[in-house]
Amino acid sequence: MTTSDRHAPELVLRAQQAASEVGAPYVERTHKRPLASMLADTADALIVMEAEAVSLVDAEGSLRFSPGLAHLRVKQLDAGVHEDMLLRVSGLREGERVLDCTLGLAADAQVAARLVGPSGAVTALEKSSALYLLVRYGLETLPRHPLACPIQAVYADASEYLRTLPDGAFDVVLFDPMFERQRKSSVAFQTLRRYADYAPLTRETVAEAQRVARRAVVIKGSRYSSDFKKLGLQPEPARPNATVLWARLPGFAGSPPPEARIR
Length: 263
Description:
6-stranded mixed beta sheet; 2 domains; 4-stranded mixed beta sheet; alpha/beta; 10 strands
């Protein structure tokens, strides 16, 4: 963990506190010291905290946190367009509690926060320390949507975290495992892939999620992945050219999906 080469004392303190959350070292950056030099001398990868941005940097590329496509998805919801697949499959509504077991770059977490609104809650888990720091502190650089709840990022393994929760602790549990099939992508996304967790989603973890979810468990996967077949899941109907598929399982209460409501 480090900072921009021009930094205030408050930024250093924030970076040091962030590093301590995952047991990572903090490396002081002197004025005009290039990141390439730090990567050569002190670390294989760096989380760089700036006043208004957070980046993940290594020798092969960099990834600066941004709202990404979630920004466009939320704008569609604000405009009254309710075709987002997360909404259609999960039926999320105001005031519900969501557990996102695979935070990643927080795309679905941001949309879920808008769907459940200020009276709802979104907790998001990330097992990769690098991605956790990037997204946990990257989210703090974004303006809060007035119709969204905050996202509570937690550095944790989903399978272990689920076992600590009581039955029906959340209304909906989400999974978006990293796709097992490599696809051509941007330099930034390739940086993400280098630090993502590739542990497969197991039937045992899905069963724990169903116990914890009061209403539904929602799982995303690539059309080209064998994950759904391995888990015995039947994806929801999708367009023939869709590259991402969704599956829905009943939760603890076994209730049918409610009518989606969003302001």
